[in-house]
Structures are given as structure tokens and as C-alpha cells.
Write a structure and sequence with these properties.
The protein has a domain of 42 residues. Helices cover 7% and strands 48% of the residues. The protein contains 1 helix and 3 strands; from the N terminus they run αβββ. The longest helix is centred in the N-terminal third of the chain and has 4 residues. The protein is elongated.
């Protein structure tokens, strides 16, 4: 069995581009991000995505 350190494609530098959006609406905030491998396509997954949702409760005074 081959170690991950022995696979040249996994030890090379990786260059990725990430782009994201977020918006707050009232007490909620949504976010969306996409990551793309822009250099070497044989070492890591080519694309990734993230979707998030957050809730901000009302502050008590």
C-alpha cells in the first residue's frame, strides 16, 4: 500500500480560487461559497461548495 506522502500529485502545491456571498435578512444570514481548483487538476477535487445559515436572536436590553 502506498503512503499519501509518496504520491507526487498529493504533495505538490495546490492553487484554488474561492468566491462567496452572504446576506443578512432580519435575524437570519445565509452564505454560499464555491472553491475551484485552478492549477493542477490531478491532485485534489476540482470543485467544492458550502452553504450556510445563521440565526441572530433579538438582543435584550
Amino acid at each position: 500500500m502506498q503512503n499519501a506522502e509518496d504520491v507526487e500529485e498529493l504533495t505538490e502545491n495546490k492553487y484554488q480560487l474561492s468566491l462567496g456571498l452572504q446576506q443578512r435578512i432580519g435575524h437570519a444570514q445565509w452564505s454560499l461559497a464555491v472553491t475551484e481548483n485552478i492549477s493542477n487538476f490531478s491532485n485534489t477535487p476540482d470543485i467544492g461548495a458550502q452553504l450556510g445559515l445563521a440565526y441572530f436572536p433579538v438582543e435584550r436590553r
